[in-house]
Amino acid sequence: MDRAEQLAQKRLDLQARAADQRAEIAAIGTELYARLGAADRMISIAGAVAKHPIVSIAAIGATLKLGPWRILRWLGKGAFLLGAGRRLYAFVSKQRDPQP
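Request: output the structure for the sequence above.
Response:
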């Protein structure tokens, strides 16, 4: 094997190694992006609570006054109605504007 072939082989090896490293960095970046996204949402919620403390106080007061089980029952019903409303809206939108 002459010098040019050795250099060509070394270049191919380095390119393969670099591709593997890029793939590994991309995988780490994707995982990190998901984790930082969750942290960013928590910071946003904390900022909203800090800007409007009366909402938090009202929620705590309502929980104490009405009881946590009643509120959980209402939240469950509200979540069901919200989901049903979203599905109905998607269905009506699809019927109104069908895709070819």
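The helical segments are 3-51, 53-66, 68-96.
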